[in-house]
Amino acid sequence: MIPDRINLYDLSPAVLEELLRGWGEPAYRAKQIYRHLYVHRTTDPSAMTDLSKALRERLAAETSIGNLKQVKLLTGDEGMTRKVLWALPDGSPLETVLMIYPDRATVCVSSQSGCPMQCVFCATGKLGFLHDCTPGEIIEQVVWAARELEDVAKQVDQASKIENRKLTNVVFMGMGEPFNNYENWWTSVERLHDPNGYNMGARNFTVSTVGLVPGILRLAEESLPINLAISLHTPDDELRSEMMPVNKRYPIAHLIDATRVYTEKTRRRVSFEYVLLKEKNDFPEQALRLAQLLRPADRPPLLCHVNLIPWNPVLGAPLSRSDRKRVLAFQSVLKERGVPCTVRVERGVNIGAACGQLAGA
Ligand code: SAH
User: Fold this and answer.
1) DSSP string of 110-152?
2) Which domains, ranges and CATH numbers included, belong to the chain?
3) Which of 99, 124, 273, 307 to mutate to test the pocket of ligand 1 (most atoms within 8 A of CB)?
4) pTM (2 d.p.)
5) Atom of ligand 1 nearest to the CA of 115
6) Known catalytic membership, residue 355
7) pLDDT, position 1
């Protein structure tokens, strides 16, 4: 992969058209190429047989279909979870996880290589911040997943287990903090949503943020109604600042206020992620305080849902995972207080592909 080539996935339809016009090609060529990229998901210009040979050759010489080089593919959950490790042109690692279910398939996409947020319980933060993905580098991960899903569904031993061969959900919950790379990330969402392109419905996207308030307020103003998940992890400021340095900049009250602005503006339910760490943030009293935070006596309840995530082990972190009993006890306090709450079903733990385990290995 030559990094200074034009990555076709980085180009908007208008810019692609401009490039081709500069090459003396008619505008409809751009549409044909766009279809190859997003609908046929072609990986090689020589397969774009509706283009002239000269154009195919020029594309091959001067552009690339994606920037990511596949380093490793790991499979787990009987082939239904597939994690790919990529190398970016500068050598930084990036990971993407495809989770296949009989009736749906979700791809978990990275927005940055490494992460600047430094949450103590997450493996990605241990890498530090390495690289902001370009829109194309984000899009490419989704296109890969769509292709991979089709390929797996064709395998005889898997075919009967997969009724739906289309990617149904894109979650921005891989490496990095999407709102820390907002422009590029949002461009990728718009491009993937484009009916002439990949054509993914807005409600099929979910972005997860560490709690960057400006990003939440900005998303509230966007026209596409995508889903928002917020990593809360505790109702207590002191503990949250210890677990997530971002809390010193955007403490809980501020975060909750921004969330209210978001739900009032969009009328959409947000989900709060809550990683359960044994005897740290999984006591019933904390569940009670969480319920009070989300359903306060003096304000209307926040339009939300809580997603409990038993912590996945990260090497070197002096933490432990809440056992099932503590998870269920925590959940029942929330439910009794009227807070909708589910426990996330884990995928990919034994291939290091579960939440918070993405560290480029
Ligand atoms: N930066 C974004 C998205 C990344 S991770 C964010 O912070 O939301 C997606 C989710 O996995 C977040 O809720 C994150 O806090 C959680 N997570 C991180 N490390 C984890 C671990 N070791 N076990 C379980 N969940 C983890």
Assistant:
1) -SEEE-SS--TT-TGGGG-EEEEPPHHHHHHHHHHHHHHHHHH
2) 6-64 (1.10.150.530), 69-351 (3.20.20.70)
3) 273
4) 0.96
5) 1
6) yes
7) 47
